[in-house]
Write a structure and sequence with these properties.
Elements: E1 6-9, H1 15-26, E2 30-35, H2 38-45, E3 53-57, H3 63-77, E4 82-85, E5 90-92, H4 100-128, E6 131-136, H5 149-169, E7 174-181, E8 194-196, H6 205-216, H7 225-236, E9 244-247, H8 249-268, H9 270-274
Parallel strand pairs: 1-2, 1-4, 2-3, 4-6, 5-8, 6-7, 7-9
Keywords: Membrane, Oxidoreductase, Transmembrane, Transmembrane helix
Pfam families: adh_short
Protein name: SDR family NAD(P)-dependent oxidoreductase
């Protein structure tokens, strides 16, 4: 398959990003892929094809670095059609035990980096009057689990950003999807992708039990990252991709149950809600 479509994928040296890049290249797409370690990226992808693969070393918390990578992509391929903000990591622990520096860092990577990538690529897409932005969120951004408050907050922020961004960009023909998976076998629960602070405080039983259960499930999550990557590619070829896409049976169940609970609560408190107006 030959296609002129150009993808720009962050966090591409491992996990979902790496699998996606490999499938894109196998499918004939042109791909600009970012990583903090470009040699690791090249070795992981295993493809040296300057015509279709552009590995980029990028500090996604540096606007100038992002801008340079965008310009390199344009110089090499001439356009950017699909952006996948995949770079990010997890964080588990109690709010009172996670250090301030760690809190700020995960927001820098999971939220501000994605926003900065969008900032730098939007002028390109506006000029093209087309484009597709895929932000990799999490079901935790809508339905969190004990001990994941900070991570959930970052993914909730990314989901809200995506929702309003879609409204802002509709007139330019630019589409937006926030992908919200449950557990997938991407190495997410390994030390490279998870900042875990074990609680030393008496109590917090729900947090400790959840951490134990999640860590024991590493490598046996039900989600298939190969299928997830295929779905992303299919969405990019769709004329009307969804704004929210939950991936995995667990993600569907959790989101569905929360929507039911929210609807019931909204109805139960309607009289109080509307009484706040003049």
């Amino acid at each position: 398959m030959n296609t002129s479509k150009v993808w720009y994928v962050t966090g591409a040296s491992q996990g979902l990003g790496l699998i996606l890049v490999k499938k894109l290249l196998a499918g004939g797409y042109r791909v600009a892929a970012t990583s903090r370690n470009v040699q690791k990226l090249k070795e992981a992808v295993g493809v040296i094809d300057a015509d279709r693969f552009l590995p980029l070393v990028v500090d996604i918390n540096n606007l100038d670095c992002i801008d340079e990578s965008v310009q390199q992509t344009l110089a090499t391929f001439g356009s950017i059609d699909v952006v996948v903000n995949n770079a990010g990591y997890g964080m588990s622990g109690t709010v009172e035990e996670i250090e301030e520096q760690e809190l700020r860092h995960i927001f820098d990577v999971n939220v501000f980096a994605a926003i900065n990538v969008v900032k730098k690529i939007l002028p390109v897409m506006r000029k093209q009057r087309s484009g597709y932005i895929i932000n990799i969120g999490s079901v935790a951004g809508f339905v969190g689990a004990p001990g994941w408050a900070i991570y959930s907050a970052t993914k909730a922020a990314l989901a809200a950003f995506s929702e309003v961004l879609a409204l802002d960009l509709k007139e330019f023909g630019i589409k937006v999807t926030v992908v919200e998976p449950s557990g997938f076998r991407t190495g997410f629960l390994t030390p490279n992708s998870l900042a875990y602070t074990e609680s030393k405080i008496d109590g917090y039983h729900a947090v400790k039990d959840t951490a134990k259960r999640y860590l024991a499930g590493n490598g046996i999550q039900p989600g298939d990252p190969d299928r997830a990557s295929e779905i992303l590619i299919e969405m990019a070829e769709s004329k009307q991709p969804p704004l929210h896409l939950y991936l995995g049976q667990d993600a569907y169940n959790r989101a569905s149950n929360k929507l039911t609970t929210m609807t019931e609560e909204l109805a139960a408190w309607k009289s109080v809600t509307v009484s706040a107006d003049f």
